[in-house]
Design goal:
By secondary structure, the chain is an alpha+beta fold. The chain has a domain of about 270 residues. The chain is built from 11 helices and 13 strands.
Length: about 375
């Protein structure tokens, strides 16, 4: 960081950090909205929806359930000392996290972000190649590819099986994990560190997204319109990214409520974007003012949320169960900031518990990631 103003611990404060903190002190409640379709994480490789017209066939929809009641139009359940307490989230300004919501129905994004390490940044700046790893050291290509390979084996002779075979073999030889919101993957899981360097990735308008969820594969274009699998198989090189959901069919946490999906929980649930086609990337960048502005936006949004929820208990059920239901059922219009917050997450680890102490830790981490610009912008193929 540059020399100049310093914080209470003697650490230098960057220009953006001073601006962000000044805005908060002045009572700024409204964050800088992320770009439409924008926000990721990486574990060495970089890190760690059903479209309209497809949703009805796999049974998603409805509002977030809170304490057994449908959450449409309601705020979260708040308790203090056993008695319900109204959290003033709705009284302090417009919704905070709605720009960050990632719906399983419409997950396609043009802009993604990926966390990585300083050592990897040296490679990126030197080689100017974004996709340079085929797997994470000691951990393989990731669970998503196990699920895709199983789909290929179980659906032989079908379009789903054929596309799964291509995705698990030749289509994605090099990969990188990403997400539309930097804050939602920065903390990772306990025992994991995705790095503190942020890469911004912009996909081409012609890029397609393969959705691996609900025990099947779907493909959508950049506008979220379903692409017939037969069409996708004719030009599979347009598939730039996989949106993978470790839902109940893939061994993740179930959403209670009877019917096909019972109340029991199995494994951990999570979501991720997996980039695998450099030719479908319009540009990627490091160390830019644009990335700084996104981090500033995230810090302001989380800081506003923190002020709104001080002294409140937002969840009365395990976080894993809450996100499983939110991601499967969707975020109800006007459902409140808890619903939006859950819908923005990729990783429901303990580091994302929606309580003041954890939100403060995310803010502190992001503030420590602010940097003085040293821009690199790469257009693949040039």
């Amino acid at each position: 960081m540059a020399s100049g103003s310093r914080d209470e611990l003697g650490r230098p404060i960057s220009r953006l950090k001073r601006v962000t903190l000044s805005a908060l002190l002045l009572g700024a409640c409204q964050p800088i909205a992320p770009e439409p379709g924008s926000s990721g994480g990486s574990v060495d490789l970089g890190q760690g929806g059903i479209p309209t017209g497809v949703a009805g066939s796999v049974g998603v929809g409805g509002g977030l359930t809170r304490g057994g009641a449908a959450g449409a139009g309601e705020g979260p359940i708040i308790t203090r000392g056993g008695a319900p307490v109204a959290c003033p989230e709705g009284a302090l300004g417009p919704p905070i996290f709605s720009p960050y919501v990632v719906s399983n129905r419409e997950p396609a994004r043009k802009v993604l972000y990926s966390w990585t390490t300083p050592e990897h940044v040296v490679e990126l700046r030197r080689d100017r190649r974004l996709l340079i790893r085929s797997e994470q050291a000691g951990m393989g290509r990731g669970y998503a590819f196990d699920v895709i390979a199983k789909l290929a084996a179980n659906r032989v002779g079908t379009e789903v099986g054929e596309l799964a075979t291509r995705l698990s073999t030749d289509l994605f030889p090099k990969i990188r994990y990403a997400w539309p919101a930097p804050w939602a993957t920065r903390m990772g899981w306990p025992g994991e560190d995705y790095g503190n360097q942020l890469v911004r990735i912009v996909l081409k308008d012609s890029a397609w997204t393969a959705l691996v969820m609900n025990g099947s594969i779907f493909v959508v274009d950049a506008q979220g319109v379903a692409v017939p699998l037969a069409t996708a198989l004719e030009t599979p090189e347009r598939i730039a990214v996989i949106f993978f959901v470790k839902d109940e069919p893939a061994g993740g946490t179930s959403c209670g409520g009877g019917g096909t999906f019972g109340a029991s929980a199995s494994g951990v649930t999570y979501r991720e974007f997996i980039l695998g086609k450099e030719a479908m990337i319009e540009e990627w960048s490091l160390g830019t003012d644009e990335i700084l502005q996104q981090l500033g936006s995230d810090i302001v949004a989380l800081s506003t949320f923190l002020e709104r929820i001080r002294g409140c208990t937002l969840l009365t059920e395990p976080l894993l169960q809450a996100v499983a239901c939110n991601w499967r059922q969707g975020t109800a219009p006007g459902g409140g900031e808890l619903s939006n917050y859950l819908a923005a997450l990729a990783l429901p680890s303990e580091y994302y518990q929606p309580e003041a102490s954890q939100i403060a830790k995310i803010i502190d981490t992001l503030e420590s990631d602010l940097f003085d610009p040293d821009p690199l912008l790469v257009v693949p193929g040039q």
